[in-house]
Amino acid sequence: MKKQKLIVIGNGMAGIRTVEELLKIAPDAYDVTVFGAEPHCNYNRILLSPVLAGEKTLNDIILNDDDWYASNGITLHKGRKVVAIDRRRRLVRTEDGLEAGYDRLLLATGSMPFMLPVPGRDLPGVIGFRDIRDVELMLEASQKYRHAIVIGGGLLGLEAANGLKKRGMAVTVVHLLDTLMERQLDKPAADLLKRALEDSGLDFRMEAQTEAILGHDRVTGVRFKDGSETPADLVVMAVGIRPNVDLAKSAGIHCERGILVNDTLQTFDPRIYAVGECVQHRKQLFGLVAPLFEQAKVCANHLAEYGIARYEGSVTSTKLKVTGIDLFSAGEFQGGNGYEELLFQDPARGIYKKLVVESNRIKGAVLYGDTGDGAWYFQLMRDGTDISAFRENILFGQAHLGDAGHGADNRAALMPDTAEVCGCNGVCKKTIVDAIVQKKLFTLEDVRAHTKASASCGSCTGLVEQILQSTLGSDYSVSPAKKPLCKCTDHTHEEVREAIRTENLKTIPEVMRFLDWKTVDGCHSCRPALNYYLLCQWPNEYRDDPQSRFINERAHANIQKDGTYSVVPRIWGGVTNPRELRAIADVAEKFEIPTVKITGGQRIDLLGVPKQQLPAVWAELGKHGLVSGHAYGKSLRTVKTCVGKEWCRFGTQDSTKMGIDLEKMTWGSWTPAKVKMAVSGCPRNCAEATIKDFGVVAVDSGWELHVGGNGGVKVRATDFLCKVDTEEEVKEYCGAYMQLYREEARYLERTAHWIERVGLAYVQERIVSNPESRRALYERFLESQKSAQIDPWAVLAKESERQHFEPLRKVG
Amino acid sequence: MNVMSDWIEIGRIEDIPRQGARVVATPAGNVAIFRTLNDEIFAVRDLCPHKGGPLSQGIVCGKRVACPLHNWVIDLASGEAAPPDEGRTACFPVKLENERLWLQLDRPE
């Protein structure tokens, strides 16, 4: 088949990113030709500021060199400006008369700096700050001249001013309003920023309106509305950008402020697409890089004729580093209008934080100086989490000190290259920085895939984000508004569950078909999730798919690094007896099990069992009444207890019996992630119930229930759910809590993260204040337990099942 | 001719679950025999190029398997790790004739 012709007008980040996405999914679909007005390859425009400041060279910021275009068979016309599109004949024409035909056309013409319509704006020495040419002009000027004026106190203006100052010029920043960066900062934060920049040597003229640029052969100064004049040898206009729509307009393509596109990035001419700063989508214009990359992905999908992706706009937060100062803003950060404002100020440390809140939900945030918690606040904002349970502490941050990247504003920047960032995978800072630079990574997901940093336990995520930010420069923004379940779909966990429920989907292939899965049979991320969601939605009916389970749950044992397994029988409430211990000892001897270990959950672990031996080990244990402990599953693991009032002189209730009762009720249930419980007999809490997913602490007058704790990577103490009087109530609340978690948490989300996402207040509302809701959940839990409480070891130890554990054949 | 260069019969296709694997034990270690959703058969050394994990125990999707130890994804046809990871495990010729599976052990590719 003859290849179609794709012409891309615009050799910048959005256009080339779209081509890269297209090459990934349909490398042979098009002959691609790229026209760029600038005489350069695609470079990282965000990094022009560090180039101006002398921190990077032009070579450092090239994203795609000539070789890249050549090796991908792309024809590149550098320095050739397209001046006309003939839509009827489907061809484009350049300034120097070259014509080229297209089947599909992609407009990525970006934006232009807005030049104030004042007299003298065309004088030499008056420039914008947009491309390499502008930077070269500024560098030239800084060598010959002394005085610079930057008009515009937004991000770009301040970066230009900072760069020029570093190059030795005396710089005055002129701003129309009384607030710097008013689109990202409120007045107090802006004032802090202004003071810090003044201390570093910049001058400011606030609330000043430019009337004219003075000069004859070259700019000599600026006159303001109030009649005053300031001398200048260079004037940089950074008052805003304007989508570059002239070409599209002249071709009759419908434009307003930008080129109008729909959710597939298509313009009003179906053969013509547009991405980046030149487009207007759902009334929005774009200036940050993250939304452009999302658009690129969607547009590529349609160019490749897959036709399934939609761009639905981006909710972005802005994380910026302006001249070394960390800033973060998101949402309705100005406040006012009936919103509440939570404030934290520490002028001596240069820290300011403001959260804008409505009905206990975050609507916006401004952070100055310490932005470590920006991602957390943003998440709470997007999820609409009820923050009432931790409102009094929220401004102090997520309380994850150390590796989480919080606590020190500039920790990432100050770290030596050799410092280990990710302790799980042994990744040091330099490895991450090199990968970001050499492989052109822009997102946390990219960094994870390439370096494995923060890909395991995730506790260094904040730190990795900081490194990404400090390496990429000032404009690093976290984006996608919704996170798909995995790469096989655009749907979220919630959307998938909703479809299973409302569309009566009963098998994994049915779900995949209905939701247009992009892969034939999913991946190792989505299949286990779908299996769980179906099992949870259709208890007693869904037929479990072992091939969609991780090996531990398929083999009902824990795989070890050498491929052998570990076996942990259930020891109810941590209480055992000589008969059981003897049985375990006999099994260990008979099968020559190399390691026998007491676990943290009051059980015994038999380590080093080869797969073929598992059924025989289970059969032997089963003879003595020992059953699977599910130590391998996303399921109820262990219920830890103390000895309680039967023995302990402080005990107030029979915590051991309560623990056994809870374990008998909940064992065998599958859950989104592992669930651990504990019951302590008095507030001394020897069973450590306050770091469990569900913890019970006996007091003289009844039982305290605690939820959402875990030990491990990030210790999280439980939240206090409520206090109840009777044993029966403990069980009812426990079952209801289990079921709420089972039905509403995302697969692999521990209770701690789930509660942080939905808020304790929500869990209390469903379980404590609404008895009907609680009882309905409890009943659904008991119902689903009916078919769940079958010992899998007994089933798999049968002769008929043993072949699954044997080699297909032995040779030699 | 070496005896080992012959095709060895290793079993029937129903002995392996769809989207699953079984191993053939050999003196040189296990060879994992995979069966995909569409009944394609592949044979690779049961050893992940990363840390030696038993690939036969992984989740099979399309013509790929995710190693059970650290989730490296290995292409069953080529034995190559999916980028950005780098590494390769050996593949063996395998064929299906009249519902019977045949494996050739002395010619890893």
Strand % of chain A is 15-25%
Using only CA atoms, what is the Rg of chain B? 13 Å
Overall structural domain count of chain B: 1
According to CATH, what is the topology of chain B?
Rieske Iron-sulfur Protein
- Taking all Cα atoms into account, the compactness measure Rg of chain A is 31 Å
List the uncertain runs of chain B: none
| Helical coverage of chain A, percent range | 25-40%
**Dominant shape of chain A:** globular
| Total count of strands of chain B | 10
Question: Uncertain spans of chain A, ≥5 residues at pLDDT below 50?
Answer: 400-409
Fraction in helix of chain B: under 10%
Largest sheet of chain A: 5 strands, parallel
Average residue pLDDT of chain B: 91
Tell me the domain tally of chain A: 7
Distance between the termini of chain A: 51 Å
Q: Provide the succession of SSEs of chain B.
A: EEEEEEEEEE
If you had to describe this structure to a student in words, what would you say it looks like?
The complex is a heterodimer of chains A (812) and B (109). Chain A is α/β, with parallel strands linked by helices and 812 residues long. Chain A has 7 domains: 4-110 and 243-303, 3-Layer(bba) Sandwich (FAD/NAD(P)-binding domain), CATH 3.50.50.60; 126-239, FAD/NAD(P)-binding domain; 317-399, 2-Layer Sandwich (Enolase-like, domain 1), CATH 3.30.390.30; 411-472, Orthogonal Bundle (Arc Repressor Mutant, subunit A); 493-549, no CATH class; 552-623, Sulfite Reductase Hemoprotein,Domain 2 (Sulfite Reductase Hemoprotein, domain 2), CATH 3.90.480; 636-788, Sulfite Reductase Hemoprotein, domain 1 (2-Layer Sandwich). Chain A has 25 helices and 37 strands. The longest helix of chain A has 18 residues, at 727-744. The two termini of chain A are 51 Å apart. Chain B has strands spanning 8-12, 20-26, 29-35, 41-45, 59-61, 64-66, 73-75, 91-92, 94-97, 100-103. Chain B is globular and about 40 Å long. The mean pLDDT of chain B is 91. Classes of the chains: A alpha/beta (812), B mainly beta (109). Strand 37 (809-810) of chain A pairs parallel with strand 2 (20-26) of chain B.
